[in-house]
Specification:
The protein is mainly α and 128 residues long. It contains five helices and no strands. The protein has a domain of 56 residues.
Length: 128
């Protein structure tokens, strides 16, 4: 049993390594070359300040609007927390979650587990 677990872990590690390196390198800045160089130059007709507040935390009212606008019936992901659950939080829980989100934005740190995504299997493709 242990050997199968170790093999499974090794497969996951190799799969991760493959997708981290398949495009050439792992998260390393590369100079922009060729025709793309001109595309990525600052454009004089675009106000450079439009993104200056993009990482500012939302106000509490904006946060509540974000939660209210979440779609229903979506997959929960690894946390098991659905959009419907978020929409029915108490005021105290909303304040706690809002505080947590603001701290994440302020510190620029996103917990590793939150970066995981899941894609449910489409049951109609597997006739079992």
């Amino acid at each position: 049993m242990i050997i199968w677990v170790l093999i499974h872990i090794k497969i996951l590690e190799e799969t991760n390594r493959h997708f981290q390196t398949v495009a050439g390198s792992v998260n390393r800045k590369k100079p922009i070359q060729g025709r793309w160089k001109e595309q990525y130059k600052p454009q004089p007709h675009i106000n450079e300040n439009i993104y200056s507040s993009i990482m500012d935390a939302p106000s509490y009212d904006e946060w509540l609007d974000i939660i209210r606008q979440l779609s229903n019936g979506k997959a929960t992901g690894p946390s098991g927390v659905s959009n419907e659950m978020l929409k029915h939080l108490s005021d105290d829980c909303n304040h706690i979650l809002y505080y947590l989100i603001c701290k994440i934005i302020e510190l620029g740190f996103l917990p590793k587990q939150w970066k995981e995504a899941t894609k449910p299997l489409e049951k109609h493709l597997f006739p079992c």
